[in-house]
Design brief:
Elements: H1 3-11, H2 21-31, E1 39-40, E2 46-50, E3 59-65, E4 70-76, E5 82-87, E6 99-103, E7 107-112, E8 133-135, H3 140-146, E9 152-155, E10 160-163, E11 166-169, H4 172-187, E12 196-202, H5 212-219, E13 223-231, E14 249-254, H6 259-271, E15 276-281, H7 289-293, E16 300-309, E17 316-319, H8 320-334
Parallel strand pairs: 3-12, 3-13, 13-16, 14-15
Antiparallel strand pairs: 1-2, 2-12, 4-5, 4-9, 5-8, 6-7, 6-9, 7-8, 10-11, 11-17, 14-16, 16-17
Length: about 350
């Protein structure tokens, strides 16, 4: 599988939390190459079951969320400006003066308004989300013909290859996780699987891990791996809380995770010579693993994270080799790694 172009396709499909259809349709089409019966449920989750054919095999759930952070229109003021709220934890430090697209009856270009420095009394102030307005250039009457409260807004950005195999794009959180699972399926020798695989590209993670809850309850797996992103190292970051881009997959250790799975994934990485780091999350993970683990009768769960820089901004940055190594570990753990 071409990881670069698959990630480009996935990150180019819009899908703000609660309105993931375009992104879900893209992921569904890509998943059907490996699971022709894959489908989308009423919540917007894309799911598939791949049977290994072995009697009494357990079920391993592979989850990555398909939604991205964004904004939602709350009202249109008398001058035509759109007031917005957040869908997920957008980084408010970078929101002013951004170019955006309003996904109304059509895709409408806009910009987030800001005071010029000449008339601003406090240049250091970070705006609250309720203070943001989107300027589409329309009057109130014009805007109301195309935009309704509840329409989503995304910040415009491009897919950029920075250097070598490091790329920057919007929605790398968590389309890189979706890409890693697809790449793992591509690597697998299905005849060698030791689990039935339940794949889930879940909706509404950024707004409270909502989509994976009904999906995990329905699937009721024996084990689960939540594939998400974590913090990549930058000059101003804390070294022990981050991982360098290119250092491999981050294996989670937490009170919320199954220690046996964490140990088994580490042993698998060492046996297969897959580069990895350990990510310690003391009490909870902030990922879908927290919800999967307490679903139904309880599920053994672990996280595999891909280090990215600039999380929850339009320029999230990732090394393609980290996606590939995450995929290799998933395939090896599932028992279906290809020798080719």
């Amino acid at each position: 599988m071409d990881i670069l172009n698959t990630l480009k396709e996935l990150t180019g499909a819009k899908g703000v939390s609660g309105d993931e259809k375009i992104a879900s349709d893209t992921a569904l089409r890509l998943l059907r190459k490996y699971a022709p019966d894959a489908s989308a449920d009423s919540f917007g989750n894309v799911t598939a079951l791949i049977k290994c054919g072995k009697p009494d095999a357990g079920t391993l759930m592979l989850d990555a969320h398909i939604d991205q952070i964004g904004l939602i229109v709350t009202s249109i003021d008398k001058d035509g400006f759109l007031k917005v709220g957040c869908c997920g934890g957008a980084d408010m430090k970078i929101m002013l003066s951004q170019s955006v697209t309003v996904h109304g009856d059509a895709d409408i270009p806009g910009v987030i308004s800001t005071l010029p420095p000449h008339v601003s009394s406090d240049h250091s102030k970070v705006p609250e989300v309720g203070e943001l307005s989107v300027d589409t250039g329309m009057t109130k009457e014009q805007a109301e013909k195309l935009v309704s409260p509840g329409d989503r807004v995304t910040v415009n950005s491009a897919f950029r290859v920075l250097s070598g195999e490091v790329v920057s794009a919007p929605a790398v959180d968590d389309r890189s996780g979706v890409c890693a699972i697809l790449a793992a399926l591509d690597m697998m020798d299905m005849s060698q699987l030791r689990y039935d695989l339940a794949v889930c590209f879940s909706a509404q993670e950024e707004t409270g891990e909502r989509g994976v809850k009904p999906a995990a309850f329905r699937i009721q797996p024996d084990e689960a791996i939540a594939v998400d992103v974590s913090f990549g190292r930058t000059p101003d970051s804390v070294p022990h809380e981050t991982a360098e881009l290119g250092s491999g997959v981050m294996i989670g250790v937490s009170a919320a995770l199954d220690r046996g799975m964490s140990t088994a994934l580490k042993s698998t990485a060492e046996r297969c010579k897959i580069p990895y780091t350990i990510e310690v999350m003391p009490s909870s993970t902030g990922t879908n693993a927290d919800s999967i683990g307490v679903s139904g009768r309880g599920v053994k769960c672990c996280t595999l994270s891909i280090p990215i820089r600039y999380m929850h901004t339009p320029i999230e940055t990732v090394a393609l080799c980290d996606i590939e190594n995450t995929a290799k570990l998933i395939a090896a753990y599932a028992g279906g790694e290809s020798n080719g």
